[in-house]
Amino acid sequence: MVWYNGTIGERTHGPELYLLRLVAILPQSKPKKSKVMPLPTEASQRRVRDRVIEILSERIDSGFYATGQPLPAERTLAADFGMHRRAVREAVEHLVQVGLITHRPNCRPVVGPPPMVQAPELRMSRNKGLAAADSESTNHKTRPQISTSNLIALMMCHGGGLETERTSQERIFWGMNHSLMKLGYHAVFLDLGEQIGTDEENAAHEAEHLRYIRDQGFGGALFYPYAYRYNRDLVNEVSQTVPIVMLDRKIAGVDVDFVGCENRGAMFDVTQHLISQGHRRIVHVTRVELIDPVQDRVQGFLDAMRANDYPEMEEMVVNLPPYKDGRYFTVFDAIFKLPVEHRPTAAVCLNDYTAEGVAWRLGQLGLSVPGDVAVTGFDNIVPLVADGIGLTTVAQPYEEIGSAAVEVLMSRIKGQHTAPRSVSLPTRLIVRSSSIWPG
Fold first, then answer.
1. What is the pTM of this model?
2. Beta-carbon contacts of residue 125 (< 8 Å; ≥ 6 apart)
3. Can you name the CATH fold of 41-137?
4. CATH class of the domain at 148-261+400-425
5. What is the mean pLDDT of each run of 10 residues along the chain (439 residues)?
6. Among 53, 60, 154, 218, residue whose Cα is nearest residue 403
7. Between the CA atoms of 167, 193, 357 and 428, what dihedral angle is there, to the nearest 10 degrees?
């Protein structure tokens, strides 16, 4: 983690800011069988090694390889870079010498020390090492300093929790960064925290980062707001000088561009899937939240239930309360303790996290998934629920959301449209065992 403020490269105790510029990997060329390849010269071997040093340094600085994390195996890195293992080995040895990596006997190299406490002298020594290695070359170039107008921020929580692979936030950042690199811009992650706090806490964090990108002259920002009832005037003010694209949800009274997914149609599809499985008593488990994704998913559920003429169709909506105490499942329990002929046979959940909690609670009530109750989620970030049951869910195109938001942002920067644009990307239904009746 590196903190930046003012001139890029100057570390201060300002807002947490990740400069995550993922470097391009050199493609591995396909050798021609009929051609004898010349032996590499010492100068070419040095250039390859220095390229590996640069890639590894960028990944460590960005947090792609986190502090304390072992590096991938030498063989894996060589295959990843399309380079010889000798180049990887020499690059790692150099980074060990300058203190960026630690390497103990019979152990894989480990990233360290932490970037946030990295002394300027360490960066200088690493650069001097590269310069010394290139002292024989007359074409050595220093890396240009980055202008803040070429920085595009992604403001959102970094997530985690039940996600077993890359988080949705990481995937959005990946798509964003991939698009920005082609355009000569650099992606910056402005972290709003691991966990979503209270409205007041979220509003304070978001306001701090909004003022930061304004004061530092960022080129633009993708903003996933959690305190959607706050900071309206500030967002409007900042958007006058820093183009902003909202992700997933909008703030009422703020006229900026927006990129999300087709929530209403996606929830219609997952509900229709359950109806096609023979379910007629279906409950939508959601929460009271006045943001577009939540409201659109409720409407998609209702649209699907009312699009069928089956006389036995029964639609139910349960709003889980905001507090997590003994009252959290009071209404939910009352519905699922009804006699079997009145009890819902399927639960369409707001998202995967809700589905995980619902599956757990059904088990507490002595009901099995999917034998007694089918369960579906939304987001495709939690693949398994209780007892290792695969969760039927809706996959959001996270990488595409990041790249589409960049396209909208660039269009705004170039003045190609004046009215706010709203882009909704299609989703994909993923059917797993949680919604399929056994037998």
1. 0.67
2. 98, 99
3. Arc Repressor Mutant, subunit A (1.10.10)
4. alpha beta
5. 31 36 36 44 77 84 76 82 84 82 78 42 37 39 57 82 69 90 88 78 92 93 91 94 93 92 97 95 92 94 92 90 84 95 96 95 95 96 90 96 96 86 96 86
6. 154
7. -30
